[in-house]
Amino acid sequence: MNRTILLAALAATALSSPLGAQIAPPTRPQQRTSLPAPTMVDPSVATLRDAALKDEIAYDIVEGLTTEVGPRLAGTEAEARARAWGVVKLKALGFKNVHIETYRMPVWVRGEETAEVVSPFPQKMRLTALGNSGATPAGGLVAEIVYFPSFADLQTAPEGSLKGKIAFVSNAMVATQDGSTYGQFGAARFTGPNVAAQKGAAAIVIRSIGSDHGRGPHAGLTNFADGVTPIPAAALSTSDADNLSRMVARGKPIKLRLVLTPRQTGTHESGNVIAEVPGSDAKAGIVLIGGHLDSWDLGTGAIDDGAGVAITAAAAKRLLDGPKPKRTIRVVWFGSEEVGGFGGRAYAEAHKADRHVLAAESDFGADTVWRYQASLPDSAKIIGERIGAALAPLGIVKGKDAAHGGSDVEPVLATGVAGIDLNQSGQRYFDYHHTPEDTLDRIDPVQIAQNVAAWTAMLAVVANASEDVGTISVK
Length: 475
Fold this sequence. Notes:
The protein has 475 residues and is an alpha/beta fold. It has helices at 3-16, 18-23, 43-52, 57-68, 77-92, 151-155, 181-190, 192-198, 238-249, 302-320, 342-350, 381-391, 410-413, 429-432, 445-464; strands at 96-109, 113-119, 123-125, 127-129, 141-148, 166-169, 203-207, 233-236, 255-260, 263-277, 286-292, 328-334, 356-361, 369-375, 397-398, 418-424. Strands 1-10-12-11-13-16-14-15 form an eight-stranded mixed sheet, sandwiched between helices. The chain has an eight-stranded mixed sheet with strand order 3-2-9-5-6-7-8-4, with helices on both faces.
């Protein structure tokens, strides 16, 4: 007799004996658990969503933008060409009320940028100036580096201790699905140069804020406080930063030569490209969606953010081609996001009298959407439930936090407008973010189509909801 049969026999014997009868659990009536009825998906929403899984419009838009325009640094002639290209494209797709709204902004451009270790291990390194960086003398700057393993270590350096030195911050970002480590490690770029300048540094170099291991540096903006003179500030490629850290570990003083010649060129024109899917009820409000048209200039701006303008426009196009939605869907290709969110603020100011009921943006590449998060008033919670039900077949789960939008729609959200986040996977986004590798081949046609399907489903629910979305109280 095997062990399973033996145990079964013993259990039966125990239950049939007087002792077994005494220890047997009492019989209780079954209790029925009342479960909430599942939220049903409108068949028309499901049809739109499923058809969008075969979308080719989004890939076509980002292919055209990166091929025919290329990199689009904010406030430059290239960004102006991108706006003109966008108007032609959106009109060809059938959007209504397509136009450009311009504004003025300060413009920074890069110049020559080189670095090399002078001693004790002479070799060249790859780096790129950070936006708003100051410049070295034309002949360059040679100085000894002071090593800081993290931004926190730089913060605790004594005042004046960096006089005449080049600060080097080597904190290493790691990839996560939600991209949260960008904020954690990004402080070395966002405010590190300002801190180093206040402590007397002649310049600063940081390990690029990225999760890759290569020789392509990551660009990005930094800011100096009022009254702080900008110092030369640059990001080393992650591989060169690691190499420099290994040199530091050998215990010898290290001298670095930097040549950085960026400059501020004054105030120039930038702008937002706006297009609409007109709604049937003008009083029902506007659903605002989009991404940013500008990009850094090392790559061609495919994942940041050619993908975002393409995904949102392609999703809106699917509703444009069907029955007129109740609410107007406004697609905005924002300008000058990378250098401080000028386009988002200009839009919010120009349209503060408009009744926006929801705002959302796509600015995290084109990999698979895995999570959605919502900020909706209590009166519109059912809309969030419908969105969740429509997104579930795409493998998208509901997050625990409220939607926070992004820099382009934050000024509108700050007025109490509801928001939705459709979060893409960040596992590889920061390998290419702001690098020369931000190119079309980083976009998977299947994954970008999944993005379009998610946005299409969300728009179909929100734009046609019978409920009044209402506003969220702003603290």
